[in-house]
Automatic annotation (TrEMBL), chain A:
Organism: Sphingomonas gellani
Lineage: Bacteria, Pseudomonadati, Pseudomonadota, Alphaproteobacteria, Sphingomonadales
Name of the protein in its database record: Cytochrome oxidase maturation protein, cbb3-type
Pfam families: FixS
From TrEMBL, chain B:
Alphabetized InterPro entries for the sequence: ATPase_P-typ_cyto_dom_N, ATPase_P-typ_P_site, ATPase_P-typ_TM_dom_sf, ATPase_P-typ_transduc_dom_A_sf, ATPase_P-type_domA, HAD-like_sf, HAD_sf, Heavy-metal-associated_CS
Organism: Sphingomonas gellani
Protein name, entry field: Cu2+-exporting ATPase
Family matches, as CDD domains: HMA (cd00371)
One Gene Ontology cellular component annotation held by this UniProt entry: plasma membrane
Swiss-Prot/TrEMBL keywords: ATP-binding, Cell membrane, Ion transport, Magnesium, Membrane, Metal-binding, Nucleotide-binding, Phosphoprotein, Translocase, Transmembrane, Transmembrane helix, Transport
GO BP annotations, alphabetical order: copper ion homeostasis
Annotated ranges, domain HMA: 13-78
Compartment list: Cell membrane
Stretches for region Disordered: 271-290
Length: 58, 720
């Protein structure tokens, strides 16, 4: 039975990690454009051009 | 950096556009890449899921320039008049986080509960119960806030809503379970409480996604007016003055291509006015001294001097704004079906739980036992499936409609659309496409076509633009023209390959030749213009406002749905009559915005449920007043903002399609209600009899929710 005392905290910790990851993802806009991400991988971007929404640095 | 570039404005601004026709990765690359090379654009980012385009740019670039730039890339864009971070979106984000927390807690508590149900007892059960409490209580405190806050607001105002029984149920369940845990009792309902919150939050989240967005149409409309106008003083000096300060009798100068800021009478100058914003009429109207012009219309070809006849607050456009506000208030607030259900539901649940508590006390059970049973009744009757019944169906149906080109802006719109029995159709821009297209007379020879395009591109006149668009669509490239000049009120002329060519009014293009009439007047002809070489034959180009290609089929389908349809148009009778005959519809012409509003009001007062389909500013009040408003995506800002549904593309079929889909949706919603209530009817006697253990509660709750969701998923093919 003692093994439960170890496994349950571990399980909870892992679950909390997942929850924290979701909070981060929701806060940083990872879910804003679900279909676009699948298509963007196909774009040929010039090396050096910033990939994301950042403006080209000048 | 280019020396001619104006100093980058400190105040950059951001514009959000809705873009039609994006289908693939190539489209994203084309739009983003194309805009980034445009001067003044800092960044462009496409959101493919919501079909939006967000552009960071210099404040000097206006919306129209950006929309034109997107059009040059081959896509149609409209202004998206909504704050990027709306309250509805913030609410959705908050609910999503709460749902994540409660779902996480529910899964973990359920794991512990399963082992308790399968026979763990003694110290193990005790430890698992304490662990469950440890996970569940913080999760309930965090994830339950949306319900607690709403219930508290309702109770404070002496009302009750769906959230009150939910809050009481959750609080009692948690309290009882904690007591059970502390005293070593066999039953703890932590799993039930957390799962309840998770299911309910799922329903709320979907509902929030469908919530109506702020309809700030009046503000959008008044933005169409220039902020200030050039006023010609008595001493001949020109001063800039805010529109609001203009008084009747002042003389106002309007340059060609500018929007007119005041209602007035023309004193000097001859020009054409594009009045489509106010009247919905697509053909430009010539104006000359003595004629009247309206605020919000566009002065197209030549400068005008106007004597103002009305102060800013008395212009026609300001009247429409007031009418729309009144229409928004006069519209009886529709009570959503879920709210109606909960009005009956909440008192019933309270009474039932209280009755079983009293009943068991009277029957001689102890306080502890009686309370446990009352809690079980509250959990069992909690409107889990009921909370999911409506939003899931609406979200699935809205998704199906979106794939067929109809954007549902307000979830309640589907409910209202299902009971509509009368359809009012505007003509210009709704049944027709609202843009002029050449129907005959375009020259065949390549050199003629290239010269014509060169001339057409030299002016902002709408007819010339229509010709240019059509020719460019055919892949014609403009010839090189020199000495291009625009003759006010007549047309344009230029020299191509050493020969003079003219595009404009027939009697000016070739005064010597009387234009040959084509015998019977072309049925839908609305405007015409002529093109000729100085020494050549005259091409008489006829342009008409093209009818949407499937208009006849769509109107027939509307009739098959049992709806009575009629035309309400601001256009003149002969124009409306021809189309009405073709579509076999009852029609009314020459209707002002107030007339349309009144027509809707009279029908609604007579007990009809009206679907208004219109696009222009002139339809705004009627769109708002009608039970449901629907507008094409190409409509004016005002039309789109006032409407509950927006349809994309050149077809009219989405209108009957949306009605049919709405009816299917409501059928599924009613089935869902039946299932949810049927489940309660079955389970409540068990709960009252004291037979509901935590296991039964958990099974019943998830079972009915899954059933309801599965039934709603059938709506994925609702739009057909």
């Amino acid at each position: 039975m003692n093994i439960v005392g170890v496994l349950i905290p571990i399980a909870l910790l892992l679950g909390l990690l997942g929850l924290a990851a979701f909070f981060w993802a929701a806060g940083s806009g990872q879910f804003d454009d679900l279909d676009g991400a699948a298509l963007r991988v196909l774009l040929d971007e010039e090396p050096g051009e910033p990939p994301g929404p950042l403006p080209p640095s000048r | 950096m280019n020396a001619l570039t104006p100093v980058r404005a400190a105040a950059g601004s951001t514009t959000e556009l809705v873009v039609e026709g994006m289908r693939c990765a190539g489209c994203i690359a084309k739009i983003e890449g194309g805009l980034r090379t445009m001067q003044g654009v800092v960044a462009a980012r496409v959101n493919f899921t919501s079909k939006r385009l967000r552009i960071d740019h210099d404040a000097a670039l206006d919306d129209e320039a950006l929309i034109a730039a997107v059009a040059r890339l081959g896509f149609t864009a409209h202004l998206f008049a909504e704050a990027s971070e709306s309250p509805a979106r913030r609410e959705s984000r908050r609910l999503a986080k709460a749902l994540a927390v409660s779902a996480f807690a529910a899964m973990n508590v359920m794991l512990l509960s399963v082992s308790v149900w399968s026979g763990a007892d003694g110290a193990t059960r005790q430890m698992f119960h304490w662990l469950s409490a440890l996970i569940a209580l913080p999760a309930i405190a965090y994830a339950g806030r949306p319900f607690f806050e709403s219930a508290w607001t309702a109770v404070r105002h002496g009302r009750t809503n769906m959230d009150v029984p939910i809050t009481i149920g959750i609080a009692l369940t948690s309290g009882m379970s904690l007591f059970e845990t502390a005293t070593g009792g066999p039953h703890a309902y932590f799993d039930g409480a957390v799962m309840l919150i998770a299911f309910l939050l799922g329903g709320r989240l979907l509902d929030s996604a469908m919530r109506e967005r702020a309809q700030d149409s009046v503000a959008a409309m008044l933005r169409r007016l220039p902020a200030e106008v050039a006023v010609l003083g008595a001493d001949g000096a020109v001063r800039r003055m805010a529109v609001a300060e203009v008084e009747p009798g002042m003389r106002v100068l309007v340059a060609a291509g500018d929007r007119i800021g005041v209602d007035g009478v023309v004193e000097q100058g001859e020009s054409d006015a594009d009045r489509s914003l106010v009247t919905g009429e697509s053909a430009p109207e010539p104006v000359s001294p003595g004629g009247t012009v309206l605020a919000g219309t566009m002065n197209l070809t030549a400068p005008l001097t106007i004597r103002a006849t009305a102060a800013a607050a008395d212009t026609v456009i300001a009247d429409i704004a007031r009418l729309m506000e009144a229409a928004g208030q006069g519209k009886s607030r529709y009570v959503r079906i879920a709210d109606r259900a909960s009005r009956l539901y909440a008192p019933a649940v309270h009474t039932l739980a209280a009755l079983s508590l009293v009943g068991w006390l009277v029957a001689g059970a102890g306080w502890h036992h009686a309370l446990l049973i009352a809690v079980a009744v509250l959990i069992i009757t909690c409107p889990c499936a009921l909370g999911l019944a409506v939003p899931v169906a609406q979200v699935v149906a809205a998704g199906a409609l979106m794939r067929r080109g109809v954007l549902v802006r307000d979830g309640a719109a589907l409910e209202k659309l299902a009971v509509v029995d009368t359809v009012l159709l505007d003509k210009t821009g709704t049944v027709t496409l609202g843009r002029m297209e050449p129907v005959s007379g375009i020259p065949v020879l390549e050199e003629d076509r290239r010269a014509l395009l060169a001339l057409a591109l030299a002016t902002r006149h709408p007819l010339a633009r229509a010709i240019a668009t059509a020719l460019e669509g055919d892949g014609v490239s403009p010839a090189i023209a020199s000495e291009l000049k625009e003759v006010v009120g007549r047309g344009v002329e230029g020299i191509v390959d050493g020969r003079t060519a003219r595009l404009g009014r027939g009697d000016w293009v070739c005064p010597a030749v009387t234009t040959p009439t084509t015998g019977a007047e072309d049925a839908d002809a609305q405007s015409e213009t002529s093109f000729a070489w100085a020494d050549g034959a005259v091409h008489r180009i006829v342009l008409a406002d093209a009818v949407r290609p499937d208009a006849v089929a769509a109107v027939q389908r509307i009739a098959r749905l049992g709806l009575s349809a009629q035309f309400v148009s601001g256009d003149s009778w002969p124009v409306v009559e021809r189309l009405a005959r073709r579509l076999n519809l009852f029609a009314r012409a020459r209707m002002s915005p107030a007339d349309k509003h009144e027509a809707v009001e009279r029908l609604e007062a007579a007990g009809r449920r009206v679907l208004m389909v219109g696009d222009g500013l002139n339809d705004g009040p009627a769109l708002k007043r009608a039970s449901v408003g629907m507008a094409p995506a190409a409509a004016s800002d005002v039309g789109r903002q006032a409407a509950d549904l927006v349809f994309f593309g050149d077809r009219l079929m989405p209108v009957p399609l949306a009605v049919a889909a709405a009816r299917r949706t409501m059928r599924v919603v009613r089935q869902n209600f039946l299932m949810a209530i049927g489940y309660n009817v079955l389970a409540v006697p068990l709960a009252i009899a004291g037979q509901v253990t935590p296991l039964v509660a958990a099974l019943a709750m998830s079972g009915s929710s899954i059933l309801v969701v599965a039934n709603a998923l059938r709506l994925r093919s609702a739009a057909r």
